[in-house]
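Weekly structure sync, notes
Attendees: PL (lead), two postdocs, one rotation student
Agenda item 3: pending single-chain targets
PL asked that the sequence for the first pending target be pasted directly into the notes so everyone works from the same version. It is reproduced below exactly as submitted, 331 residues in total.
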Amino acid sequence: MDGRSLGTTGLAVSRIGIGLAALGRPGYVNLGHASDLAGQYGVDMMQQRTHQVLDAAWDAGIRYFDTARSYGRGEAFLGSWLQSRQFAPTDLVVGSKWGYTYTAGWQVEAVAHEVKEHSATVLQRQWGETQSNLGMYLDLYQIHSATLDSGVLDNQEVLTELAQLKSRGVRIGLSLSGLDQTEVLRRALAIIFDGERLFDVVQVTWNVLEPSVGAVLQEAHTSGMGVIVKEVLANGRLTTRNTEPAFAAQLSLLQREAVRLHTTVDALVIAAVLRQPWADVVLSGAATVDQLQANIQALYVSLDEETVAMLNTLVEPPELYWATRRSLRWN
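Predicted structure, written out during the meeting:
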């Protein structure tokens, strides 16, 4: 798998990475997540599954691994895999996130699966927890879903803490979600500490349904910021698992185009992200080895003008996209 630099961080990453949002906990919002796990929610069974997917990712050439404090035991599963395989820290790149606390109690259904708090107290606590799980392997620490309403980009105590981590060699990033991705990224680009931009990397939602942040991503990447793209399959909406009648016509277009290009729907839409010049790493959110291997086929899909024109017809108004995202059921 081809690699590239993650912006100007000096970190060498694979074009496709693996995220642990669907692997580290029993419940997630991806369509069909319950069938992926097949009711095997025991911690040992889920750790074994995670290690199998991570082994397949490594064997395929994936060298960027992404997790978060709120992904259940995602950090712990990744850390135990790294230790058991005895990788050197320079063999791969690991990112995690802070700002959400997992609260589902290892249940598929819960009143609250995670609680958001972007305070310095949470940063300090979760940094210690992340260090316990990932230690010397951690390269990138990100604010999890930074938004304007959380006030995290105006919190000088938090920003100072992050700047101190950066001075110790940790790259600092932020992930984005929701309607204000563009505005939050512009705000982050303007934050300077000790004469340099604080944030090295941004992780965003961009897919063929929701490409609205594309222009500012080009600006960020040109300025040297690394770009990681998440939710490229729109939590399964851009796969054949989407049985919503309202999406039937769009899915039919995707299936027809996939057949024409001798590929699958998921590989087709992931290829659309990989072709963006600012996309350093495109995350697979696979929960099974088969899903991961299918996603990786995107590397071999060549999109022509006819395909790009068809994909452009799928764009949804951002308000509709994010309202649908909020309505997805944990399963």
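Discussion points:
- The chain has a mean pLDDT of 97.
- The chain has one domain: 3-321.
Action: rotation student to compare against the earlier draft before next sync.
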